[in-house]
Amino acid sequence: YINQPAVSVLSGGNATSFTAIDLTTNTAIPTTTLQNIIVTLLVVFTPLAANDVVKFRPTGSSATAGLPTITGTTAGVAQTQYLTMIAGVGSSKPEIDYLVSVSGDAVSVSVVSWTGVSNTAYPALV
To answer: What is the rounded distance in angstroms from the CA atom of residue 61 to the CA atom of residue 97?
Structure first.
């Protein structure tokens, strides 16, 4: 499914510990407990300093390495990037977790598209 235009689910996030983003916000994705939602996100990241990062992981995952990461190139300059990943299930709805390097960073996330996969060949959480 494609959201046209992309639907905002987070604006100006600055959590420095992994925090869930509810992907059903603004009806970007319908509420479901399906564990294999593949989501394409439009991410706008404004780092406080060069080399600050924003990281993402499926909600419910405890992974700390090998995560989708965007690294800031210039302090205070917004960067835009598309990211595709699997969402986890938190509070009976699809969610992803994010964190930034420092609370002065800011990240905004919109859902561009999503696919519900019920094939057991896909892992529940990555």
So the answer is: 9
- CA geometry: angle at 84 spanning 80 and 117, to 5°? 155
**Tokens 């529940």, located at residue:** 124
Report the C-alpha gap between 47 and 67 in whole angstroms.
Answer: 18
Span 33-68, pLDDT tens digits: 887 899 999 999 999 999 999 999 999 999 999 999
pLDDT per residue as tens digits for the range 82-122? 999 999 988 889 999 999 999 999 999 999 999 986 655 54
| H or E element that contains 98 | strand 93-100
pTM of the model: 0.90
Side chain identity at residue 49, one-letter code: A
**61 to each of 38, 56, 112, 117, how far by Cα in Å?**
15, 10, 22, 18
Give yes or no for a cis peptide into 5 (omega within 30° of 0).
yes
